[in-house]
Amino acid sequence: MTNTDWLELSIKRVPRVTILLGLVAGALATLLLEPVTGALVLAGSALAAVGFISIKSFVDKYLQAGRSGFWRRAVLFYSLRLLLICLIFLIIIIFFKGRVLALAAGFSLVVVSILAEAVRNLGSIKQWKA
């Protein structure tokens, strides 16, 4: 298996691991705090997984297609993405006062899943060299 294959498998696994971590963290938050907090943690992880998939598809589509108009599309795409994330946080702040941290915690689970994939890949490389 080449390095590119490992990378592709890892990139495909990150959204699934993020959702799985969101399910676990959401269940724990439901048990320890309340159901709304657990649902917001799960919603944050789902939002992060969708964001990761959209970034991957954007990079696959526009980076490989060429450089013409790439920067304008990238700025527009990321501006719209940032606006959507801000609107979602604003909606959470308006409707669920004081629970925006639950959504942020779920949203940040994508970092944990990327870290888990990095550790997994480093373990495979170390095993390969031995």
Describe it for me?
With 130 residues, the protein is an all-alpha fold. It has one domain (3-129). The protein contains five helices and no strands. The longest helix is centred in the middle third of the chain and has 31 residues, at 35-65. It is flat.
Helix content: over 70%
Helix-strand makeup class: mainly alpha
Reading the helices and strands in chain order gives HHHHH
Task: Tell the overall outline.
Answer: flat
**Rg:** 17 Å
- Main sheet summary: none
> Beta fraction of the residues?
under 5%
Look at the structure and give the mean pLDDT: 79
* Structure summary, number of beta strands: 0
Distance between the termini: 17 Å
- How many helices? The count is 5
> Uncertain runs with pLDDT below 50, 5 residues or more?
none
Number of domains: 1
Structural topology:
Blueprint: H1 3-32, H2 35-65, H3 70-95, H4 100-107, H5 109-129
Keywords:
mainly alpha, 5 helices, 130 residues
Give a brief rundown of this model:
The protein is mainly alpha-helical and 130 residues long. 89% of the residues lie in helices and 0% in strands.
